[in-house]
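Thread: quick sanity check before group meeting

JM: Hey all, I'm pulling together slides for Thursday and realized we never actually wrote out the predicted structure for the chain we discussed last week. Dropping the sequence here so it's in one place. If anyone has concerns about the input, flag it before I start.
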Amino acid sequence: MSIHPKVRAVTERIVKRSQPSRTAYLARMQAAERKGPMRGHLSCSGAAHAYAGAGEDQDALATRHAGNLGVVTAYNDMLSAHQPFERYPEIVRAAAREAGGTAQVAGGVPAMCDGVTQGEAGMELSLFSRDVIAMAAGIALSHNTFDAAVFLGVCDKIVPGLVIAAQVFGHLPAVFLPAGPMTSGLANDEKSKVRQKFANGDVSREELMAAEMAAYHGPGTCTFYGTANTNQMLMEFMGLHLPGASFVTPNTGLRDALTHEGAKRALSLSALDDNYTPVCQILDEKAFVNGIIGLGATGGSTNLLIHLVAMARAGGIILDWEDFADLSEVTPLIARVYPNGLADVNHFHAAGGLGYMIGELLSSGLLHPDTQTVAGVGLENYTYEPKLADGKVTWRAGAGKSLNDKVLATVAEPFQATGGLTRLQGNLGTGVMKVSAVADEHRIVQAPARVFESQEAVKAAFKAKELTEDVVVVLRFQGPRANGMPELHSLTPILSILQGRGQKVAFVTDGRMSGASGKVPSAIHVTPEALDGGPMAKLKDGDLIRVDAVAGTLAFLGEGLEARRPATADLSGNMAGTGRELFAVMRGAVGGAGEGASIFGGFDGT
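JM (edit): ok, ran it. Output follows.
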C-alpha cells in the first residue's frame, strides 16, 4: 500500500522546514559516534570511581569489552504507575549479564502525578517537571560510561522528558521499558458519575473516596486513555518499545520477560555490536508523523500537542500545530477508549490493541512502514504480539482483526471520519481541542463569556448558582509564563454538570486540560497566552464567543476588541509555596505552547 498523499506531503513539509536544524543535530550525533564507546576515554581514576560500587560486575566493566547499560529510572512508590519499577534494576542487571554485559542505574528522575496535584498548587510545577526530567536524565548519562540505555517511565511529563534526554544522547541506543496498566477496577464512567454527584452535592466525601479507591486500586498506570497511556502508544508507534509491550499488566511473567528482553535488546543495538541502532536513527521525521497519526487514530491526549513539539525539537525536527491539524483530516478515529468510549486500556488491549491498529493503519497507507525501530526496520514488526513460552518472550502474528468492534473499528468504517484532535484559530489566538469524546451537537457553541482568572473563582461562581445560562467559561492567565500552565481537570465535573442540564457550554483557556478530558468542548493551550499579550486578556463578561470545532474557529464576535486595554492579573499568589519559588527562572524562560512550552533553546537552530 502506497503512503497516503497527505501523509507524504506533511512529512516532506516537516523535512524541508527542519533541514537546517536536523542537519546540525545529526552532525553532533555523528561526531559523538566517531569517538566510539565513551568508557574508553575515561581516565583510570574516573573509571575506578564509576566501577567501585559494581560488585560482581567490576571485572567485566574494567576490561571495557562488555557493553554497559545505563538505567535511567523514574521509580517512586507514591505513583502507582512507577511503583513496579522498584524491581526493574535487578531484572535488567540479570539480563545484561546473560548477554555478556553489565548494567548500572545511571540516575533517577522526578516523577509527579497530575492526578494527585489536580487543583492544587503543585500542578503549577507539572509542565516544568518535563524539562527537569530531561535535565536530570542528561546528568545521569553525562558520565559517559554507557554503551546503551534503558529508560523507565510511564506518566504524563516523564516519557516526554526522557525522550528529550534520549535525543540529546541520540548517539546511544535506547529502549523504553513500561510498567503497564493496573488491572481494571471501578469503571471509569462510573467514577466520573460519582465525581459529578459530589460536585453537585448529591453524595458525601466518603462515597467519593470509596469510588476513587475502587478505581485506583493497585500498581500500574491508570486505566483510562489519558496522557500516560497515550505516551505508551507513542513509544510503540515511534519504535522505542518492544512490540506489544505497552499494555501488559505489572508483576506478571510476561511483563518481566519483556523487561528482560528489552534490556538485552538495548545492549544488542550498541556500537559494540553489528546492529548499531542509535536513537537518532529511530526518531526521524517519519517516526514523529507516525506518532501524530497514532495520536489522532486513538483519540489521544491533547498534552501531546505540546510534548511532541518539544520532543521533536530536541532532535532538530520542527513540528507545527498545522501538521497535527492536516494529519488529523485524513486520520480516522478507530479506537473507543474512555473518555471517548466505555472501554479501558485493558479492554482495548484484549480487543487487539496497538498491534491491530498499527496493522490497520499500515494497510491503509496512513503510516510510514519503513521506519527504523528497536525491533528492526519496518513498523510491521509492531503488528506482532508478545507471548510467554518457557519463561521467555516470543512474538507471534496478531489476530489481524478487531475482536470487539465497539472498541476497535476499521479505517473503512471508523467511529469518526477524522482524528480526535482539531486546531482552532481566530481573533482570540490559536488553540486545540480534543473532539473524540465531544458529541456532534456540542461541537459548536456560541454564547456569552464569563471571564475568570483562577480555578477557585470558577468553582465559587458555580456554587453561587451564577452559571445557569448558556456560557463560554474563559479562564485566562493559566499559560506557561503566568503560572506554569497547570491542568484544569478539576473543573471537568462542574462543566459536565452544566452541559448535562442542557446548557450550551464551552471552555476556553491558555492552560491545559487533562489528557482524559473530553465531553465538554474545550479550546485549550490558547496562544499567545494572556500574560504575553494574548487577546484573551481583553475579554469581558458578556462578550459573545464562538467555539466551533467543525470550522476550526475560536472567535470574539463583536467590534473594538483591539482598542481595549488588556487586563492585568495579580499572580503574586502563584509565585511561592509548594516549591513554586524554585521555578521562577523557568516561568521567565519558557516558550509558548505552540513551540512546546519548553525552556530549552538552540535545539532547533533558533
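AS: nice. Residues 320 and 594 are 7 Å apart (CA to CA). The longest strand covers residues 444-452.
JM: adding both to the slides.
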